[in-house]
Amino acid sequence: MKIIKEGKTKKELKAILNETKRFECRTCxxxxxxxxxxxxxxxxxxxxxxxxxxKCPNCKRNAHEVKMR
Length: 69
Known about the structure:
By secondary structure, this protein is mainly β.
């Protein structure tokens, strides 16, 4: 096997997955932050991106992560 481009190290991945993330509910408009134990992640259909979602504390529907740049 030949590695073309090395990915993130296990330490870097752990740091990314343990972050506090900000979410926005598209149903009620609530914006909130959640810790790692409060949200879950899912891979896209092609396993290219990781998506994070959390239950909205206001309306209890799934809210998606707000990407901060």
